[in-house]
């Protein structure tokens, strides 16, 4: 599997033992994350915009309205940084200093380009829909020509990427273990409640299996 | 309450009816979000790093090790974009095109500066600790001189900020309501499980009330 280069841009300086440059560590984080935060810079001014994504092999797909600033900028080939973060728990140490979080994050560097054909755009939109809700593409009404025309699909070939992971219990200074302070982890995850039917739902239509059993795959 | 200016940098072009520039809309999102994503640019290359934050009035506090690239860069006064995103649900329309998410996001623009004094640094570290876990600062061992010295606290006065909110059911094209496709919302939230005791927990110490009853305030 792909091992990404560790350059000045992507090398983890802080706590390097938490870092990984292997697709085998990075891609499951990208795939589990519901959303990402896309960073771009215009004349030195950074912007960070949340959006949804999908991974297609070693490429990320983004989409949006043609009028969107993010999409226009991404389509122009500017450098992007795309970050996915999963929070797995609050780590409460005996000292404030050693408080931490359990998390898995992926940071991806690349440049955007417009989908080169209607087929590539179609594949990207399908991948994004299926990233959020596997099974949905085949079930819903698929895009018509007018909708396809109103939408940009941007593909970002992954040039460099890193994963950073922290898990496990707090790590306190040895002398602090004697303190009468509770320490441990409060586990955190994304939870989904029961589906809420649209008020105009047609008679006899109930939520499909893929909605009823929805969850985001974890390690 | 503060109403932030809407300039070319912060004005929402896409679906402006979802945007707000009022602190009364923006600050609850900042406060509920456990983490933020900080964007900065070095020679045109964007970086997006997840971290925790706290709001102190009209100022954001960040912290980290002095060796961190983010912290060094933020301390130097470079422009930052700091984004908080809360995902409230997956919105499944009858057409792929009208799929959406219910979310609340805040985008903050400002420049970082180092805490000007030990008192200001102490206040920032306390605010960040209490942002993540109210009640924890008074309970845990507070920072000593060596720990204070190893940590940067960065303050970002909020120059501009916007909130963007989507909620409610899917909005389908009128002719699509007749389709035999389930539509509705799958509500999403951050969930916390039962606290997990550290294996070296002292005898007779149990999780405090503020951990047992932890949740992130919602509107």
What can you tell me about this protein's structure?
The structure is a homodimer of 219-residue chains. The first copy, chain A, has 219 residues and is of the alpha+beta class. Chain A has one domain (16-171, 204-212): Pnp Oxidase, Chain A (Roll), CATH 2.30.110. Helices cover 21% and strands 38% of the residues of chain A. Chain A has helices at residues 23-32, 69-75, 118-132, 136-139, 145-150, 209-212; strands at residues 19-20, 36-42, 45-51, 53-56, 59-65, 79-92, 100-114, 151-166, 184-192, 196-197. In chain A, strands 1, 2, 3, 4, 5, 6, 7, 8 and 9 form a 9-stranded antiparallel β-sheet that branches. The longest helix of chain A is centred in the middle third of the chain and has 15 residues, at 118-132. The first copy, chain A, is globular and about 65 Å long. The mean pLDDT of chain A is 94. At the A-B interface, β2, β3, β6, β7 and α3 of A face β2, β3, β6, β7 and α3 of B.
What key phrases describe this protein's structure?
alpha+beta, 219 residues, Pnp Oxidase, Chain A, 21% helix, nine-stranded antiparallel sheet
Question: Can you summarize this structure?
Answer:
With 219 residues, chain A is α+β, with helices and mostly antiparallel strands.
Topology order of chain A in helix (H) and strand (E) letters: EHEEEEHEEHHHEEEH
The total of helices of chain A stands at: 6
Number of domains of chain A: 1
What is the highest CATH level, the class of chain A?
Mainly Beta
Q: What is the architecture of chain A at the second tier of CATH?
A: Roll
Helix content estimate of chain A: 10-25%
Class derived from helix and strand content of chain A: alpha+beta
Biggest interface found: A-B, 93 and 94 residues
β-sheet strand percentage of chain A? 35-45%
What oligomeric arrangement do these chains adopt?
Answer: homodimer
Mean pLDDT of chain A: 94
Shape type of chain A: globular
Count all strands of chain A and give the number.
10
Question: So, the CATH homologous superfamily of chain A?
Answer: Electron Transport, Fmn-binding Protein, Chain A
Largest sheet of chain A: 9 strands, antiparallel
What's the CATH topology label of chain A?
Pnp Oxidase, Chain A
Through-space gap between termini of chain A: 18 Å
Could you tell me the radius of gyration of chain A in angstroms? 20 Å
The poorly predicted ranges of chain A are: none
């Amino acid at each position: 599997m792909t091992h990404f280069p560790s350059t000045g841009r992507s090398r983890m300086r802080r706590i390097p033992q938490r870092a990984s440059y292997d697709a085998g560590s990075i891609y499951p984080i990208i795939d589990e994350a519901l959303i990402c935060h896309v960073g771009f810079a215009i004349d030195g001014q950074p912007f960070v915009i949340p959006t949804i994504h999908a991974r297609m092999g070693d490429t990320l797909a983004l989409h949006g309205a043609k009028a969107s600033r993010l999409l226009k900028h991404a389509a122009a080939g500017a450098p992007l940084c795309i970050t996915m973060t999963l929070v797995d728990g609050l780590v409460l140490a005996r000292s404030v200093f050693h408080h931490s979080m359990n998390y898995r994050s992926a940071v991806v560097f690349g440049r955007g380009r417009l989908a080169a054909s209607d087929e590539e755009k179609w594949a990207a939109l399908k991948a994004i829909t299926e990233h959020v809700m596997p099974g949905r593409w085949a079930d819903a009404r698929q895009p018509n020509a007018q909708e396809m025309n109103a939408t940009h699909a941007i593909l970002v070939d992954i040039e460099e990427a890193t994963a950073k992971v922290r898990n496990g219990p707090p790590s306190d200074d040895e002398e602090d273990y004697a303190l009468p302070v509770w320490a441990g982890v409060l586990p955190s995850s994304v939870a989904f409640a029961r589906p809420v039917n649209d008020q105009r739902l047609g008679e006899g239509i109930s939520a499909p299996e893929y909605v009823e059993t929805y969850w985001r795959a974890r390690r």
